[in-house]
Design a protein that fits this description.
The protein is α/β, with parallel strands linked by helices and about 425 residues long. Helices cover about 40% and strands about 20% of the residues. The protein has 16 helices and 17 strands. Helix 7 links the parallel strand 7 and strand 8. Helix 2 runs parallel beside helix 3, helix 4 packs across helix 6 and helix 12 runs antiparallel to helix 16.
């Protein structure tokens, strides 16, 4: 989750004992991320850790995740006060494919590990529209899932085919109907823009179509061509043509303005919510809160009371992860020891991707100095460009600033 450098990161792999040592920084809230790598198909644009196979090892994978959770959860209790678990997020891959009873085991293990109780715990499952039916939606609700994130991506059959998706445009509405019938009152819909062959009119129809589904939350993000994907290979050969940066910016402005008129608030670069429906889990990432990631390729962030932090992630290959998890407390595949200066840069970058921006008093409390120190000239420059509003209380991006979030990060990294 860094944009500039990995200075002060460890070149060697840290042991589980090192990763679990030291008191956790004071934090009120904690998130649990569970990665489920299995998919029906591997979309040609996707660079996530996914595993498309005919037979999913439901129970073996649940065993591994529960064992890892038991081993690593105590690391996030180390300190004067344990943070409160506020979210469990099942991402992937397609966690909607996980057999509901296996998924329920992981939810219960998470609750037990962090003494979570009550209905305030946000539990999200990502699902593909073509793989949601009435029975599965009811089963999710029965085991405590209270939020669905539906990977609709597009409503046009032509564009879905171009993306390599395994569902048609009508599947989005069918999934929403099944979820509502099962009692879900918190639905998020993913949409992608700047797709191959997508016009502005195509995008306008997609936005209108999603609004007709009446979700509580929308994530709208531009297609990114990742080098190691089939789309990346096609792009290098000149076989994949997508809208240019100017067209993509126009698409982003269109979704922002259209959703705002419909009662949604843009609270992060790609995230829009109705009142009270911001994603609890993703908001933890942007605020620098601790999170534990379990499962293949899952990443964790463990801030320490001494001002440093560990960031570490699991093996990416599913079978490698399963073998490691069977050992009880597997070593992380990648580790970084982040110093206070690294964390301060990240805090500025992440805060300025959100509409709330950076709380200046909280930043001083956390890092001992104001965010403006060493950034005075660039802050003034960005404000003059209309990208930032600087007040005694906060530094906030303007709507234009959210369009240039990556450039803001590059300019303000010190």
């Amino acid at each position: 989750m860094t944009t500039a450098s990995a200075t002060a990161s460890l070149a060697r792999r840290a042991s589980p004992a090192e990763l679990g040592a030291g008191a956790l920084a004071a934090a009120a809230e904690l998130g649990l991320y569970v990665h489920f790598p299995f998919c029906s198909v591997h979309c040609p644009y996707c660079d996530f850790a996914v595993d498309a196979r005919a037979e999913i090892p439901h129970d073996r994978y649940a065993d591994a995740v529960v064992a890892e959770l038991a081993a690593r959860a105590p690391w996030f209790h180390a300190g004067p006060s344990a943070p409160r678990l506020v979210s469990i997020y099942f991402g992937g891959g397609t966690p909607g494919l996980w057999r509901p009873d296996a998924l329920a085991r992981v939810i219960e293990a998470g609750r037990q590990a962090f003494a979570a109780a009550g209905t305030s715990l946000e539990i999200t499952v990502e699902a593909n529209p073509g793989e949601v039916d009435d029975a599965r939606a009811r089963a999710w609700r029965a085991v405590g899932v209270n939020r669905l994130s539906l990977g609709v991506q597009a409503l046009d059959d032509r564009l879905l085919a171009a993306l390599g998706r395994n569902h048609g445009g009508a599947a989005g509405a069918a999934a929403v109907r099944a979820a509502r019938a099962a009692g879900f009152d918190n639905l998020s819909v993913d949409l992608m823009f700047a797709l191959p062959g997508q016009s502005l009119d195509d995008w306008r129809r997609a936005i209108d179509g999603v609004l007709a589904l009446e979700p509580e939350h929308v994530s709208a993000y531009a297609l990114t061509i990742e080098r190691g994907t089939p789309f990346g290979a096609r792009a290098r050969k000149g076989e994949l043509v997508v809208p240019d940066d100017e067209a993509a910016a126009t698409m982003q402005e269109l979704v922002r303005d259209t959703l705002a008129a419909a009662g949604f608030t843009q609270y992060e670069v790609s995230s829009y919510a109705r009142p009270g429906r911001r994603a609890v889990h993703n908001s933890l990432y942007w605020s620098g809160a601790p999170y534990l990631g379990v499962g293949a390729s899952a990443a964790s962030f463990r801030p320490l009371a001494d001002g440093t932090a560990w960031r570490f992630s699991n093996p990416r290959a599913t079978d490698t992860y399963l073998k490691a998890a069977a050992a009880g407390n597997p070593p992380a595949a990648h580790t970084e020891r982040r110093q206070a200066a690294d964390l301060e840069n990240e805090a500025v970058w992440l805060a300025l991707r959100t509409a709330d921006g950076l709380d200046r008093a909280r930043h001083v409390q956390r890092f001992g100095a104001g965010a403006e120190v060493g950034r005075e000239a660039e802050l003034a420059n960005c404000a003059a460009r209309g990208w930032l509003v600087v007040t005694p209380e906060a530094i906030r991006p303007t709507p234009a600033g959210l369009l240039f979030a990556d450039e803001l990060a590059a300019r303000l990294w010190r």
